[in-house]
Amino acid sequence: MAAVNYTAKRSIITGHVLDTAYDLDLILEQADRSVRTKKNQIRSLGGNTETILQSMDVSWSLTIGSLTGATLNGVREFLDSVQGGEIFTLDVMGSVGAPDNPLSVIADGDYMETRVNNSNLFTISFNVRVV
What we know:
The protein is mainly beta. It has one helix and eight strands. It is elongated, with a radius of gyration of 18 Å.
């Protein structure tokens, strides 16, 4: 389970208003955390190592499944609304390694919609980066 809070910017669904904040609960099929670092390691002839950490990015890869109809349109609104680098909050509840508080994140790359076995059900995968 995950909860997001975003501001509607694009692909506005019926009943929603442009530039208004909304909460959306998502049932996650998968939530994986990853860390990417930029660092410089220097090792002396004596074997001592000094590491200079330049940056660390924490990301989450998320997959939402069994989407159809109005639920699918709501998720499309959310994802389309954050594609311009808009910051939103994400609470990855119950996932291993997830913090107790919601994270401020941005969409990291495009999202992908996949039809499940030629049905009207869809799975959507997307990545976020903690800011």
